[in-house]
Each structure stands twice: as C-alpha cells, then as structure tokens.
Amino acid sequence: MPASKLKILVVTQYFWPENMRINDLVRDFVERGHEVTVLTGLPNYPEGAIYEPFRNCPSEFENYSGAQVVRVPLIPRGTRSFSLILNYFSFFVAASVLGPWKLRNKKIDVVFVYAVSPIMAAIPALVIGRIKKAPVFIWVLDLWPETLRAVGVLKNTALLSLVGKLVSWIYNRADYLLLQSHGFLESVKRYCTRDMPSERLVYFPSWAEDEFSKSSFPITSLLQPDGAFFTILFAGNLGEAQDFPAIAQAVQSLQNKISIRWVFVGDGRMSQWLADEVRARELGNVLLLGRHPLEEMPALFACADALLVSLKTNDVFEKTIPGKVQAYLASGKPILGMIDGEAARVIDDSGAGLSCASGDAEALARITLELATMTSERRASMGNSGREYYLKNYSKPTLLTRLEQLFRDATLRKGRR
Fold first, then answer.
1. CB 316 within 8 A of CB 147
2. Maximum Cα–Cα distance across the chain
3. Distance, CA of 48 to CA of 268 (rounded, Å)
4. Do the beta carbons of residue 261 and residue 300 sit within 8 Å?
5. Do domains 7-207+395-416 and 211-393 have the same CATH topology?
6. Of the N and C termini of the chain, which has fewer Cβ atoms inside 10 Å?
7. For residues 144 and 169, is the Cβ–Cβ distance under 8 A?
8. pLDDT of residue 317
9. What are the structural domain ranges in the chain?
10. In terms of C-beta density within 10 A (0-12 exposed, 13-18 middle, 19 or more buried), how is residue 362 classed?
C-alpha cells in the first residue's frame, strides 16, 4: 500500500530564486508526491536589494516545481548592519502576522523550518503549527546567540542573554530539532529543558545540490581550463566570516613562487574589499567572476584543480560545516581548507584534501604549494576519496527518506494526542 501524501509547510526567509539548499528539499518532496507550500519573503539575498526580475513580475515566482510559494513583505538586507537587523525582524513579524491569514484555508500536516540566521524565522512556524495543530521541525543550521557574539553583531551581555531566552523559548516549543553538525548538540541542549526527550534532537546534515552529482557537466563560458596554471576556486558568500584578508595574504605570498590562478565566484559584503585589494596588491593571478546561478557551479568546479573553503576561528564556527563542503566533496575535486573544527575533521577524515588552522595565511600558502606540486594521480585519489565519503555520509535520497519518516511518525503522535 503506498504511503499517504503529506501536506508540508516550509517556512524559510530565503528561497528561490535565491540559491539555497531548501530549494532542493522542496522540489524533491513534490516529486515524492507530497503537497508542499513555502512561506517566505521577497528575494534579496545576497545583494541586499529585491531581485529585479521579481520586482518586474512577482506572479512568475508563485510556483516552484509544483510547490505553492506564499510571500510576505520584508525590508531588504541592504549593505549595513542596521538594515540587516531590520531585515531579520521584518520577516518574522510579517510572516507571523500575515502568514496565518494567507494560509487560513490551507490544511497542513507538518511544518518544517529552514533555520539559518535569523532563528526568529522559526516563530511564524510555531504560530502556524499551533493554529494548524501540526508538528514543527526546526533544521538548526546556525547557532544563536553564539553566532551574533562571534561575528560582533551583538556584544552587550544583557542583550545576548535576552536572545538566549528567545532561543530557549523557540527550541522548547518545537517537536524536533534537526542538527546539521554533531558539534551543535551541546550548544543546542544548553537552551533546552532538561526533560526534553533525546529523540527530539536529531543529527541531520546538509547535502550537495543535485547539480554536483551529475557525471558530466556542460562547458562554461565563464572560465576555461588552463594547464599553464594550477587553478584554485572559491565559490559562495564573500563575507567577513570567510577571512579574505588571510586569503589575500596567502595569494600574495605565492604569486612569484608557482603559477597559481585564484578564482573567486560569488558576492557578498567583502566583494568590493577583495576587488580593491587585488588592485592594490597587483595580484594579476586573481579572477573575480561575481555571482552566478547555481547551475553554473559544477562546470566551474570542473575547470579547477582544487576548491577552497575558509572560515574564521571561534567556538561557534568550529561546530559548523559550511554547506559548500558537501558540494566540494560531491564534485570529486581535492579541497583546501583554512578552517577549524568539524569542517576540518571532515576534510581530514575523508582524505579529500589538506587543511590548516583558521586565519593562518602562512599555513594556507604552504598546503596550497604542497597540493599544487604533488602528482595529479594523488590529487585525483583525494577527489575520489571525497566523493566516496560524500555518498556514504551525505546521500540526499537517504536523508530525505529519513526526514519523511520523521514527519510521518510525528503526525501520527500528534494525531493520537
């Protein structure tokens, strides 16, 4: 007998046309026969302004692969910290007030929260879950208030304590907390009541987008393979957390030692800083390609000899595995990591590449030189090891089947209560 169809509400501040992993989950659940609705905001990440195609024709963004997309207004992220705070608050307020009204005629079996920053995005999910009597799952992809302290957004102890109380209120009202990293467990438990059953805290890692699992990729016009250089590619958010000053220092220290081409794909708050530094340091071996659709990434990866991931060091980032790590592993390319904690452990345990401590520009230069001068056979072996590790630990079909079963079990328990 086939399993019954679930009516799933996904609550996420970020969604298509923004490049987010939640897009994959929504599409795949629709393909599995479920009825999926997405409650989200207006697309503005990472540029900080509402996407022009959306402004021109919002109706074209009301359906994604068969899922209904319900949007609420928000204040765009902008380029300043204050506008980012307004962006966070505007979404959770609008979604909490307008979301239940817009979904008033919609039956919902389960609510799923894509909980990257800000954690307040879970509040409208809890409101709607209570109204609809549906279990709420929060996929914890960022640690609050620790992240606020780590990146310097919030330093006042009293305010951090207040955010901690809000986090505790949210966590203790969710039916399940899904943790993207083993390192999250102790931090999350700190904000949960002691009587919370351990089965409500579930390890649930990220996966790579489908585009990285294909056996062949189309040729890209953005970058050409060049055997005269060892090509290192960084893809993703160009933000302060990625420690571009240390990367720039490593790039400069190597430019007269070996023919390395550094390629940066993405956008973010450090984009202009990086462009200015490339000019000031006269780094002719650096290419800044800007932001491009996710579909372009696998072909760009195929042009690279190695893929770079970096993250500043602190007690929060050490527990985090950036989503790009899974994409890098799935691509079958060796990885260079200037990163600590869980992500470094994955790179080392998988044998997928070389890692050094966060912020250590000298060590990054050293392992880059080591990787560039080793045999192509050894680098290929690293890439293959990473791919095998990915398939064993981050297979999306396996993860989604597990999540689907968690949904069914929770709805049955909710129904019995």
1. yes
2. 69
3. 9
4. no
5. yes
6. N
7. no
8. 79
9. 7-207+395-416, 211-393
10. exposed
7-207+395-416 has which CATH code? 3.40.50.2000
Q: How far apart are CA 16 and CA 140, in angstroms?
A: 20
Which superfamily does 211-393 belong to? Glycogen Phosphorylase B; (3.40.50.2000)
Share the mean pLDDT of the chain: 90
Question: How far is it, in rounded angstroms, from Cα 48 to Cα 82?
Answer: 12
Phi, psi values for residue 267, rounded to 5°: -150, 165
Residue 20, phi then psi, degrees to nearest 5: -135, 150
pLDDT at 214 over 70: no
Residues counted in the chain: 417
Q: Say if residues 232 and 368 touch (Cβ distance below 8 Å).
A: yes
Q: Does the N-terminal peptide bond of residue 145 adopt cis geometry, omega within 30 degrees of 0?
A: yes
Report CA dihedral (226, 232, 235, 237) to the nearest 10 degrees. Answer: -130
pTM, entire model? 0.80
| Per-residue model confidence as pLDDT tens digits over 156-201 | 778 878 888 999 999 999 999 999 888 888 888 888 887 778 888 9
Nearest CA among 166, 139, 138, 163 for reference residue 149: 163
Distance CA 161, CA 180 (A): 24
* Residue among 90, 98, 94, 134 at smallest CA distance from 113: 134
Beta-ladder partners of 231:
261
